[in-house]
Amino acid sequence: MNLAGSPLRPAPDRGDAPVKFQVRDLVRTRTATSGAKVTAVDGVSFDVHQGEFVCLLGPSGCGKTSILNILAGLERQNSGEVLMDGRPVTGPGPDRAVLFQEPALFPWLSVRANVELALKLVGVPPGARPDRAMHWLRNVRLERFADAQPHELSMGMRQRAALARALACDPDVLLGDEPFGSLDAQARELLQDEVQRVWVESENTKTFVFVTHNVREAALLADRVLVMSAAPGRFIEEVRIHAPWPRRLDDVLVARVVSEIHDLLMQEVER
Amino acid sequence: MADESTPQEPAAPADLGALELTEEEQALLGKVTDVVRRIHFGTVLLVIQDGKVVQIEAAEKFRLR
Q1: Which of A3, A14, A242 to probe the B interface (max B CBs under 10 A)?
Q2: How do residues A98-154 score in pLDDT, each as one tens digit?
Q3: Is A119 exposed, middle or buried (0-12, 13-18, 19+ CB in 10 A)?
Q4: Would you tell me how many other CB atoms lie within 10 Å of the CB of residue B14?
């Protein structure tokens, strides 16, 4: 057997990697305008290891965005514990970049200036900013549009600029809240390829946690998919996918995982 | 009657010796068995190129409720 000669990369085993996030008995409740208490997340526990790509997958309103916001430090849990590198998460920090569904670029700054501003905010010295910004814009194939204003770009290109901005700051963790949700099918596929490539090239030093309700996206990108129930959100299944990257949606294993998770989720939303 | 395109029936476990496995094939069986033993529910997929297994892929499922 000649696995070494394969043009594809083998999927690494990350069981021995240090734990990046440790989440225990997380509960998040909200108060609706009527005054009623709504439980968004109902006592979930999970670990994310360094270098893992984890997707939280579930129907709308299952609390997956709440979990991501809590990991990002943008929201606080009502009870339970969230540790990053063994320390409690109390707020946002430059070690975690967040990609939202909207690119959230400053409309009055060029693409390049948007990336450079982020670099300034994380303390990169002025002399190093232009090269680093251009490196990441090249990486997402936007170098020709570095001086364009965001409104001159397509939605997919704006989201690529947001990805470049997030990664230029060299965060340990990239959190994505449906980052490709508002894109058309082709732009989405391009971005999924970019993300796969960037993550593979990071050589398992960066940890990615994405939230999605797109089963195909989860099976394509993740090492591990955590499938959530309808509200109140709990984990109902975990799927570990040991397949190399880059993956394609028509890979036999990916297609099979997609159909199995899809069936499970259909049972869940009909419940 | 089976035509030529029909894959051969796999040998029953008792006939393993009759297969006269090469060292390479024994190593492959060992690796596949190792993966299979670690999975309670899931799928194991062998990717074959040019008559050689180049990759073992697996998806492992855990029911959490």
Answers
A1: A242
A2: 999 889 999 999 999 999 999 999 999 999 999 999 999 998 889 999 999 999 999
A3: buried
A4: 7
Which residue out of B54, B56, B60 would a mutagenesis test of the A interface target, given it has the greatest number of A Cβ atoms within 10 Å?
B54
Four-residue CA torsion sign, A105, A106, A108, A114: negative
pTM score of the predicted model: 0.87
Q: Do B55 and A235 touch (CB under 8 A)?
A: no
Answer yes or no: are the C-beta atoms of A265 and A227 closer than 8 Å: yes
Query: Is the CB of A253 inside 8 Å of chain B's CB atoms?
Result: yes
* Residue whose structure tokens are 């009055």: A108
Residues in chain B: 65
φ, ψ of residue A51 to 5 degrees: the values are 85, 0
Report the chain B residue with the minimal C-alpha distance to residue A261: B61
Q: Tens digit of pLDDT for each residue in A224-233?
A: 999 998 878 8
Residue by residue, DSSP assigns A98-166 as EE-SS----TTS-HHHHHHHHHHHTT--GGGHHHHHHHHHHHTT-GGGTTS-GGGS-HHHHHHHHHHHH
B55 touches chain A (CB under 8 A): yes
Across the interface, whether the CB atoms of A256 and B31 are under 8 A apart is answered no
